[in-house]
Amino acid sequence: MTVAASKKLSYDWTIIIYMASIHLVALLAFLPGNFSWQAVGVTLLLYWVTGALGITLGFHRLVSHRSFKSPKWLEYLLVFFGTLACQGGPIQWVGLHRIHHKYSDTEPDPHDSNKGFWWSHMAWMLHQIPADNDVPRYTKDINEDPFYNFCQSFMIPIQIVLGLALYFLGGWSFVIWGIFVRLVMVFHFTWFVNSATHKFGYQSHESNDNSRNCWWVALLTFGEGWHNNHHAYQYSARHGLAWWEIDITWMTIQVLQFLGLAKNVKLAPVADKK
């Protein structure tokens, strides 16, 4: 599918309105009355919980790739945190990610980087793409799980409950920063893995696609920016393979392993290859 062909896909106006609303409300953070250092602190804490623990550790390394095993209660907790990132329910997220890896940078890839930076960053989500219909075939291990289906169906109500809790804790500044600013941060930092790390950086391994290792994306996403390493060894719990490729999420997995909460940890055969 060429860039021109992708434009012929029908727009998903529900997603367009959803994304536009979140970004517009986040702009209210620039009003002086909505700023407080406590609200910034809440934002950073929730960014770590939903982005690092939820998306990176939970949705991605644990569920999408099963790079390690954890107790079911911990898996559900991480999936819940990922649901709070509002990037779609866990079943949809995992399914689309698995499709991406199977067809990386080819026509069936939902965010094929060959269609341009804007497409791979976020434009693909604003259209009704064929991959959405294929998700059930790639999520047979979680399709029937009641908790996954709960998170899939009630993503927005769960976020509303969090918003109400933040309002009672700190008023509108907590809501604007802790919900909307935080969501914009998690959105774009995660999307950089689809866009920037398929365009900027270096390749250490043969991966048969455009994936690259990008240090600044790794910094923003707790290690996800070592993307060429990841595409070469998709099953590996560790993405930063060279000693200087800092991977905070791998460090987190090591802590869980020490505590007996991460087992059967899968690793790339060469941990320090340049």
UniProtKB/TrEMBL annotation:
Kindly list the cofactors needed: Fe(2+)
What region holds the Fatty acid desaturase domain? 36-247
Q: Would you identify the family this protein belongs to, as annotated?
A: Belongs to the fatty acid desaturase type 2 family.
Report how it sits in the membrane: Multi-pass membrane protein
Q: Which UniProt keywords apply?
A: Fatty acid biosynthesis, Fatty acid metabolism, Iron, Lipid biosynthesis, Lipid metabolism, Membrane, Oxidoreductase, Transmembrane, Transmembrane helix
Q: Which InterPro entries match?
A: Acyl-CoA_DS (IPR015876), FA_desaturase_dom (IPR005804)
Protein name (record): Stearoyl-CoA 9-desaturase
GO CC terms in record: membrane
Protein source organism? Crocosphaera watsonii WH 8501
What Pfam family is a match for this entry?
FA_desaturase
> Please, one GO biological process term?
fatty acid biosynthetic process
- Where does the protein end up? Membrane
Q: Where are the transmembrane segments?
A: 12-31, 37-59, 147-168, 174-193
Query: Recorded GO terms, molecular function?
Result: stearoyl-CoA 9-desaturase activity
Catalytic EC class: oxidoreductase
Q: What's its EC?
A: 1.14.19.1
